[in-house]
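hiii, so i know i said id send this last week but things got crazy w the move. better late than never?? heres the sequnce for the chain we talked about at the cafe, plus the structure i predicted for it. fair warning i was half asleep when i ran it
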Amino acid sequence: MADGKKLTDRFLVALFKRGKTEYIPISYLKFEGDKVLAKGETDRLPSLLAEMVGKGILEEKISEYRLLSDPFA
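okay and structure toks below
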C-alpha cells in the first residue's frame, strides 16, 4: 500500500498522461491512487478534480475527466 504520499494536482496530471483514453472515469483515478497514495487520500479526489476543472486544467463530461492543459509542462 502507500507510504504516506499525498494526493496532488501533479499526481493527477501524471495519471491523465498515462491514461489510454481521452476521458478517464473517476473510478480509474481512485483505483490507481489507492495503489500508491496514503490511506484516505483518494477521498479528496472529488474536491481536487472540481478545483482543477474550475482552473481550466480538466474538463468534466458525465463523471469522466479529460486533461485540457498541463500546468507543469
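btw Residues 10 and 38 are 16 Å apart (CA to CA). thought thatd interest u
miss u guys!!
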